[in-house]
Amino acid sequence: MSFRSPTTDNRSPCIGILALQGNVAEHRKALEDLHMTVREVRTPKDIEGVFALVIPGGESTVMMKLMQESGLDEAIVRRVPEGLPVLATCAGAIILSDTHLKLMDISVDRNAYGSQVDSFEAVLSVEGKDMKVTFIRAPKITRTGYGVEVLARHDGNPVIVRQNSVIATTCHPEMRGETLLHAMLLENLNT
User: Fold this and answer.
1) Which of 80, 182, 177, 96 minimizes the C-alpha distance to 141?
2) Distances from the Cα of 173 to the Cαs of 7, 124, 131, 180, in angstroms?
């Protein structure tokens, strides 16, 4: 897959990964496999100049506390309505939901699939393509509002959703080496 570079010198666009917790290395590998330049985002200054953002899983309350202490939460809230594409996995979906940043019209229950020992793998179909994923202490999307498109379900529940240029998933495709959602994120760079 190739992407038109929004940079003036044809370098690959810089994609930010929120690097407070979670599978930062796995998301980095997925983006680098798609030939993207990656920047770890820890402060509001780090988000300047990125063309998209990945919010990995982790512990949502800890991540929110760290984001609020640095002002990164406000920087993200400013950038997304301006069109910053975002991919959020697991706790990232909680952060985007109506509970925290309110950047997606979704409600999410934390750890709804159980504890660590209840983790499981699944194959999901997203836009006609199969994708292997892992659910670890996964949240459950309990409500999708106006303008939210369900891209995949598991046992009838929405597990991957999109609203405008923001994609959220309650599972971890990056742990299985999947890049489909990262590629979908990057497609938003060309719109």
Assistant:
1) 96
2) 28, 10, 7, 8
Which entry of 27, 154, 172, 182 is annotated as an active-site residue? 172
- Is 174 one of the annotated active-site residues of the chain? yes
Q: pLDDT (tens digit, 9 = 90+) per residue, 58-108? A: 899 999 999 999 999 999 999 999 999 999 999 999 999 999 999 999 999
Q: Among candidates 101, 182, 176, 98, which has minimal Cα distance to 141?
A: 98
What is the DSSP track for 43-100? SHHHHTT-SEEEE--S-HHHHHHHHHHHTHHHHHHHHGGGT--EEEETHHHHHHSTTT
Residue 187 is among the residues annotated as catalytic for this protein: no
Token representation of residue 43? 């402060």
Q: How far is CA 139 from CA 7, 38, 50, 73, 119, in A?
A: 36, 27, 27, 20, 12
Helix, strand or coil, per DSSP, at residue 187: helix
What pTM was estimated for this model as a whole?
0.91
Angle between the N-to-C axes of helices 72-79 and 60-70, in degrees from 0 to 180, rounded to the nearest 10: 90
**Catalytic (active site) residue 149:** no
Of 26, 154, 171, 174, the catalytic one is 174
Q: Give DSSP secondary structure letters for 5-27.
A: --STT-PPPEEEEE-SSS-HHHH
Which of 90, 154, 171, 178 is the catalytic position?
90
